[in-house]
Amino acid sequence: MVRVSRRQILQSSLGAAALVISPRLSLAETAEGILELTAGPSRQALYGEAISDLWTYNGNAPGPEIRVRRGERVRVRLRNELEELTSIHWHGIRIDNAMDGVSGLTQDAVPPGGTFDYDFTVPDAGTYWYHAHNRSWNQVARGLYGPLIVEEDEPVFDREADLTLVLDDWRLNHDAVLDTKSFGALMDWSHGGRLGNWLTVNGASRPAFGLEAGKAHRLRLINAANARILAIDPNRFGARVIAYGGRALAAPERVAYAPLLIGPAQRVDLLVIPEAGQDFAIDEVFGGEAFPMADFVISGPGSEAVAEISLPQIALPEPLLEGAKTVRLHMTGGAMGGNFEIVYKGKRLSGQEFRDTGQVWAFNGIANLAEAPLLLARRGETVVIETVNDTAFPHAMHVHGHHFRILDRSGSSADDGNPWRDTFLVGPGQTTRIVFVADNPGKWLLHCHMLEHAAAGMNTWFQVS
Ligand code: C2O
Ligand code: CU
């Protein structure tokens, strides 16, 4: 259904998208080494000339690209010019707990007019992103996010051949501007989340990027959508995957089972070595129909052989399954979820209370943060989390502060090189086990990154002492 309306919007425009020239993201400006990120209202055309009212960092969605070298220090002053509380989370970074940006768990939310200084180092190279982490279902959907790129010690790609593509799925109304009336609709919260009807790349509709024939390019795709799982087929344009969730594979890999799904908050890095004259598009292909997101225009005659690319991998202590602490996370609720019981703030919900509280999903029967953590780990302990999806929807589960590996999916082992990750998709009826060494002290969130699901209950936490 969403497909149809997206298509309608597409068809109602004058032959669809105009070509934009290389909408590169701006590099973050720093004053005295501190980057100012001001969260505030701004205006931006998402579709044609229609101007949407957004909330953004420094006046644009996505916000400025923060690009640093591995091991560097990042200092950001968040200035809140919104009319509601906010904070920033650095998604996928193994960060000091106090800098994780989770309102109400790791810091107090920043009030309107207030500031907060973030100061942390980035231990691992890769493609990450930052986004608001207070009422995220509202703030991220309005544009409060941006890319955070951590380069390898020695750059592997030429700077101009290393491109960031932030993908977002917006819900536009009949005037082709951001539909703000439908924020918080229980229909979205209890189903697949807030799905949009228009896709942008770096805030633009179907932009075009210039690539050089015969040269190795890195395309860093970041799914910043609230709820939409994006599907692409890299085989269509001869691309190989070099990183999942920002973290490098041992060698570039062809996708064996296309399409490749990129869940909310997930990233995929692609290696493309274009052939002379072979312009291509990256299409979104969920449901089989191709929707072009971005065009790539190839220039130059190309050269002969390109050296094989290999990226340094993140070296972390491997988890030891023997003696690991195992917890089960049973996901229930939502539309078509059968019978379920939900305890919220210590009270069992019934009837109208689901509507009144907006709580319709649960982990182990509890909606939103239980008083006690899901799990209490000693520092250095190996943890296995077994996620059982007993709902009718897929979910994108995100672990804060740690990288994990997928142990198995419904009994079969991972087939994609199994790099470290921070977010995984779990389909309806599926069980996925992840494993990691709990070595980062503090209180960490574990939640569904379909932001309406998180708001409607799919949120818990664990503690590493
Ligand atoms: Cu990307 Cu808890 O968030
Ligand atoms: Cu979910």
**β-strand number:** 33
Low-confidence stretches: 1-23
CATH homologous superfamily annotation of the largest domain: Cupredoxins -  blue copper proteins
First-to-last CA distance = 47 Å
Enumerate the strands of the largest sheet in spatial order, edge to edge or round the barrel.
11-10-13-18-15-16
Small molecules (ligands, ions, cofactors) in the structure: CU-O-CU linkage, copper (II) ion
Instruction: State the CATH class of the largest domain.
Output: Mainly Beta
Largest sheet: 6 strands, mixed
As a percent range, the share of helical residues equals under 10%
| Count of DSSP H/I helices | 5
Instruction: Determine the structural class based on helices, strands and strand pairing.
Output: mainly beta
Query: From the alpha-carbon coordinates, what is the Rg to the nearest angstrom?
Result: 21 Å
Characterization of this structure:
- The chain is mainly beta.
- It folds into three domains: 6-152, Immunoglobulin-like (Sandwich), CATH 2.60.40; 165-299, Cupredoxins -  blue copper proteins (Immunoglobulin-like, Sandwich); 325-464, Cupredoxins -  blue copper proteins (Immunoglobulin-like, Sandwich), CATH 2.60.40.420.
- Helices cover 7% and strands 41% of the residues.
- It is built from five helices and 33 strands.
- It has helices at 2-12, 136-139, 186-190, 352-357, 451-455, and strands spanning 30-31, 34-47, 50-57, 66-69, 73-80, 88-91, 115-121, 126-132, 145-151, 162-170, 198-201, 208-212, 217-223, 230-232, 240-244, 247-253, 260-262, 267-272, 280-284, 291-299, 325-333, 343-344, 347-348, 361-363, 366-367, 375-377, 381-389, 395-399, 405-409, 423-426, 431-438, 442-448, 459-464.
- The chain binds CU-O-CU linkage and copper (II) ion.
